[in-house]
Amino acid sequence: MLFHLEGVTKTYGAITALDNLSVTVPAGAVGLLGPNGSGKTTLIRTLLGLIPVDNGTGAVLEMDFHTRQLDIRRMVGFAPEDECLFPGVAGVEFAAYAGELVGMRTKDAMQRAHEVLDYVGLGEARYRRVETYSTGMKQRLKLASAVVHDPKLLILDEPTNGMDPAGREEVLELARDLAHNKGMSLIFSSHLLPDVEAVCDHVVVLGAGRLLAEGRIKDLKQFHPGCFEVRLKAGPAAFARRLNNLGCTTESREDDLLLVRVPDGHSQQTIWQAAADAREQIRFLRPQRSTLEEIFLKAVERP
Amino acid sequence: MPIFDQGYQHWSGELTDHGWRWLTITRHGVRIGMKNRLLRIALLIAWLPAAVLAFFLCVWGLLEQKSDLVQPLVPFLAAMIGPEIVNDPKAYRVEVWTLAYDYFLLTELRFSMLVILMVGPGLISRDLRFNALPLYLSRPLRRIDYFVGKLGVVVVFLGLVLVVPSLIAYVLGLLFSLDLTIVRDTFTLLLACIGYGAVVSVSAGLLILALSSLSRNSRYVGLFWLAVWFVSSMVGTVLAAVNEEHRMHHQYKRAVEAEQAAQAARPSQVAHPVQPEKTPAGSKQRAGPPQVDHQRIWADIQREQREAAKTDWRPLFSYTTNVSRVGRHWLGADRSWEKLAETVPAEERDRYLLENMGAQYPWYWSAIVLAVLVGLSVCVLNFRVKSLDRLR
Fold this sequence. Notes:
The complex is a heterodimer. Chain A is built from eleven helices and 14 strands. By secondary structure, chain A is α/β, with parallel strands linked by helices. The longest helix of chain A has 16 residues, at about 165-180. Chain B has one domain (about 20-260, about 290-385). Chain B is flat. Chains A and B meet through helix 2, helix 3 and helix 4 of A and helix 1, helix 7 and helix 8 of B.
């Protein structure tokens, strides 16, 4: 179990940031989704034991977050959302200092700082002062500082904010690698659904401090019976008309993708037959699944 | 492109306990501070008074042994601190050591203010500017660790300026005296130096941290510090000087009038001749009845000034005066001056003490002022350096 919360409520004056939140999340890569103000950052701070909650109990990595905050923070690496730096140091000193603050010995921290900077692709810039780093480099430096002590759980709060596409892809690749190949659990907080989908296999959707949806992404992306995604060699318009005549409903999506719903009692064979009759070449056909975006929107729009 | 890319490797080392985590912050701050060339130069210069102190203590040690090495210096020392003291150096050992340390610490206090100006302003303000607090507080650290770690930076540098040189000078003085009774006589000086260093470090350290937390721009914080240092000193000095001048004027006027009234009541009595002494304020002789005994009046005024100085609160406005008042009390500087004053003629004793002893109000007044400043600093720090328990 990665973390477990039971009836957690946190208020700031009249604002309820977490509202009787109960959730149990298994180890692995977990996406934390929610619109701005949904309580993602408050949840992360709660998990780190940085804030006292009004009500509720919980544990992170089997450690009670009320009583073992410092132990939790030893086991967790956290890269905050905001641009934040230890000023006046070079990249390698920054990462080493981050390690020392967790409790690494100076020599170990420095050695490890070199390793993680190489890993995140900042090896060439390790002796440059951090104030001169670009936004992407700062994000990678924060990631390096978060993993310098090899935590069991890595928490990334909006790690791709303000990054260009190439830099974003690099950070996602690093997060994916850590979570899937290095055995590190990950909480990936973001409002960018493709980022979460690219990295995580479990998702927690928050809205107004409440749990809106939670589960494995694979399970949440349900099959829609009788619905298929079809892509043809030629354009979809003529084929769509032919399918409509057969009683199917069609909807064109971007990238020449055709969404087809066959009538009850029919199967995908109807589509194959229609293509054969029209001498159309099907390039792609698969049962339709919900996208993460649909899951998210459905969860957020739920009253 | 690396020739051999190892990728991510797990780390299996041991993490240290939480207890000394603040030391990491201190060590980091000292490392950053020592990168400043100006600071390194200032620290070197700050050791010069320590060299002078060590030299003086060594000379005194040799003087106690009647060493030929220091005989050429005897006339000079006699002129400086009095032949009676130089002729019997062992009898005045404690006083001379105490006052040597007093002068040394007073000088080093100024260097301390300068060192704090170089080290302190950026300690928290830069963290605020670069938003470093979430990085600290999301690690196994408490706010108190953060504060203690930052305070430790100031303590280390002030220790280098105040305490370490004091200890080295003490050891050198001891070695050259070749007399272990000196430890028995003067070990309290060591304790006083350490205590003084602690008072300066904690009070000035917390004050600069509080100021540093008030702005994200460390230049402004530096200006705040200069204001605390110079403006408070100027205010304290000016208020005390104005009050002293005012008091002296009234005392003189009252004394002259009393003298004249007394003479008027005894017209046949022969008055003392007018002394060609300078008047209190350095002004010209008053145009009055010529038979006034100015010397006696002046001595009375000096005595009254000394008494009044014991309750004059105006120097309390000066931060450095407060710090040095506590330090001088712990050193026992006042007692030493009183003992040395016994070597000067009785009629000059009050003037001698008034000129040398500085602020005379009770030392605990300054201790209270410093305690209040410490309390205020802690409140400011608590208010300005918040935990992450807030909405963004």
